[in-house]
Design goal:
The chain is an alpha/beta fold. The protein folds into two domains: about 5-55, RecR Domain 1 (Helicase, Ruva Protein, domain 3), CATH 1.10.8; about 65-205, Dna Topoisomerase Vi A Subunit, Chain: A, domain 2 (3-Layer(aba) Sandwich), CATH 3.40.1360. Helices cover about 45% and strands about 15% of the residues. The strands form two sheets. It has a five-stranded mixed β-sheet. It has a two-stranded antiparallel ribbon with strand order 1-2. Helix 4 links the parallel strand 3 and strand 4.
Length: about 210
């Protein structure tokens, strides 16, 4: 792709660094911004700048938040006796879109993957264990992607909670093994949450 302007080329290259954005898509985005008024472009750049400077992570569940505690954790209408454990912020958005879950969340920030150099100490597992000890929920739902890494993470955390009077479940296998949770359609994901099963049953069926 040959550019007549170095400024244009640099802008396209920056957009192309975003995940899922190729050079052609990046060029379309840049050309769209060029057509916008200075006020509209400034509004766009200020939103990005503010996001980077002011975005926070909830001190309770690690979800993205504008304040110390996110709006889900601070919502008193949510069922605090249920905590849904997810891998990433995108999974929270995916589950919320189903409108089938009204409990709280805990974002691990990843899953255990030795091949990628990700161990338990690099995830938000200790804070989850502290939450369970302090808040004493009745049920812990694992909504992790159904793959080897997800199963390893479930097994590790389950072992840490053996002595807790806690119901531990996982979403039903409506999602194909090896799939990614965030890419599941809303109906499949909603059905998986509604038909969740005890972790012991799930783990024994996948040995």
């Amino acid at each position: 792709m040959i550019f007549s302007s170095t400024i244009l080329e640099n802008a396209v290259n920056e957009f192309a660094r975003l995940p899922g954005i190729g050079k052609k898509t990046a060029l379309r985005l840049v050309l769209h911004l060029i057509k916008q008024s200075p006020a509209e472009v400034q509004q766009f750049t200020e939103a990005i700048d503010r996001m980077k400077k002011e975005i926070r992570f909830c001190s309770r569940c690690n979800n993205i938040s504008d304040t110390e505690v996110c709006n889900i954790c601070s919502d008193r209408s949510r069922k605090s006796e249920t905590i849904c454990v997810v891998e990433s912020l995108r999974d929270v958005i995916a589950i919320e879109s189903t409108q089938q879950y009204n409990g709280l969340y805990h974002v691990l920030g990843g899953i255990i993957s030795p091949l990628d150099g990700i161990g338990p100490d690099q995830l938000n597992i200790d804070s989850l264990l502290r939450r369970i000890k302090e808040e004493k929920p009745e049920e812990l739902i694992f909504a992790l992607s159904p793959n080897i890494q997800g199963d390893t993470t479930i097994y590790y955390i389950q072992k840490k909670l053996q002595d807790k009077p806690l119901r531990i479940t996982t979403i039903a296998r409506g999602i194909a093994f090896g799939g990614e949770l965030e890419y599941a359609d809303e109906m499949t994901l909603a059905r998986s949450i509604s038909n969740r099963q005890p972790v012991d049953n799930y783990m024994s069926n996948n040995k």
